Amino acid sequence: MDEVGRGCFAGPIVAAAVAFEKDYVWIKNIKDSKLLTHKKRKQLSRLILKNAICFIELIDVDIINKLGIGEANRLIFEKLVIKISKKYGNKNVYFQIDGSKKKIKGKNIDFIVRGDQRVTSISAASIIAKAYRDELMESLENRYPGYNFSKNKGYGTKFHQKAIKKLGLCEIHRKSFNLNKFL
Predict the structure, then answer these.
(1) Looking at domain 2-178, what is its CATH homologous superfamily?
(2) Are 12 and 129 in contact (CB under 8 A)?
(3) With contact defined as beta carbons under 8 Å apart, do 12 and 5 qualify?
(4) CA-to-CA distance for 73 and 169, rounded, in angstroms?
(5) Percent of the chain beyond pLDDT 90?
């Protein structure tokens, strides 16, 4: 499992879990989503979604603002663990989660620092989570014009900071991130 969007100024965080049941030639192209081009990420995301067991979860801005990003990040992984555990019942499922240890309810959970660079299934999870979130943020461009979400995906680029100063905050901005300093 991996999540994306943790450091964004706007939009949800998205996490994914991926398990491969067999080996594919194209798996060797899988790496941390941050190391891939947008085009390559989209291509690999389609392949992963078609050929692997995949789960995607989202935590919306309202929850991030209410709980804080750290708790929202813990919660998104816990939601995935619960969803997968319910689906597979008593089968022995082993979870590998990118990052440092978090208090997550469940069994057979291992945290791997820089797992998105070391474990193929975590890298694959980072790819589908990033592709999913990028597509979501691109779709919000017309609803919230002027912030350039189709390009910055909600991250705090210079353009995004200037847009906040000019337009103010919109409903998908993370108010818990103290973005008022850009107003």
Answers:
(1) Ribonuclease H-like superfamily/Ribonuclease H (3.30.420.10)
(2) no
(3) yes
(4) 22
(5) 80
C-alpha to C-alpha distance for 167 and 48, rounded to whole angstroms: 38
Instruction: Tell me whether strands 13-19 and 2-4 are parallel, antiparallel or unpaired.
Output: antiparallel
Position of tokens 């461009």? 141
Distance CA 40, CA 49 (A): 14
For position 34, what pLDDT does the model report?
A: 87
Domain locations along the chain: 2-178
DSSP 173: B
36 Cβ contact list (under 8 Å, min separation 6): 44, 127
Whole-number Å distance between alpha carbons of 137 and 135: 6
Q: Which two tokens stand for residue 32?
A: 């941390």
Q: Which of 116, 6, 19, 113 is nearest to 58 (CA)?
A: 6
105-151 pLDDT, tens digit each: 878 999 999 999 999 999 999 999 999 999 999 999 999 999 999 99
Whole-number Å distance between alpha carbons of 147 and 149: 6
Evaluate whether 174 touches 69 at the Cβ level (below 8 Å).
yes
